[in-house]
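Researcher: We're teaching a course module on how sequence relates to structure. For the next exercise, students receive a sequence and then see the predicted structure as tokens, so they can try to spot secondary structure elements on their own. Here is the exercise chain.
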Amino acid sequence: MTPAALTVAALSLDLGPTRLVDGIGFSVAPGEVMALVGESGCGKSVTAQAIMRLLPDAIRQTGGQVRLGEEDLTALPERAMQAIRGRRLSMIFQEPQAALDPLDTIGAQIAEALRQPLSRVRAEVRRMLEDVGISDPERRIDQHPFELSGGMCQRVMIATALIARPAVLIADEPTTALDVTIQAQILDLLRRLAIERRTAVVLITHDMGVVADIADRVCVMYAGRIAEAGPVAEIFAAPMHPYTALLLASIPRLSDVPKSPLAVIAGQVPAPGEYGPGCRFANRCPRAEPRCATTTPPLLAAGQGREIACFAPLADRRAP
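Model: And here is the predicted structure for the students to work with:
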């Protein structure tokens, strides 16, 4: 079995007295794409920030470990962590045009990831621009971000994140601001580079369609906890957690009758300060039992590489 490139174990994150992320865990192997999916506010992006050790001052890691290979990142001093970011562990942020420096050339910004001036690594930067599909790289290398389209800026961000050949790449909603055609190209690019470079990719998204396109495995988060995890093909074919099943049912399909109502999940995601003692999906779940409101279901193995946290799973393989 291939050792994990990244392992997150029992990670808990608190904002004052409020727990935002509650004991989540997952691992990603080299060359694998693992999607962390869920509704806005479920804790996906703050988990990515915790992995990078870039949490806002108000949020504290109060439990768990993050290991890069065999190295515990949570135990490292900040100076050592600075040497790891951008080299062994990289991140692609949302809104590429906002993340890039408008006053510097894209070549200089990519070279910065190598801790070298562009003059020394120009050929390497040019090859990286070619690898991410940017045409005429010799000209683009000296342009500024405002001279490029949103899709090109996202490719520049990917080039910057991958030029040092990191073991792990975190992509936080990398296609949110892009149109559908460019989104497909960026997803294909990420998938290809992950395989070619044996880079483990953690894809943060709320879009189950994106998960189906690119991911090997998926962790479905709800209100700061993992509800279900496993291979994408297995979970899409037969979701076991009611929340996962309802998420998949809400995806529009070409076979749907035109103008028919979209499927929705009744109720709202509770705010972190409103979490009760039991399953956080209980008040929206069509299969909830009395104990669901008072007892937290543990995340347990369910066969075929799957895990589920539910007292009333869809064991009969039918949607609720």
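Model: If you want an answer key for the exercise: DSSP finds eleven helices and twelve strands in the chain. The chain has a mean pLDDT of 91.
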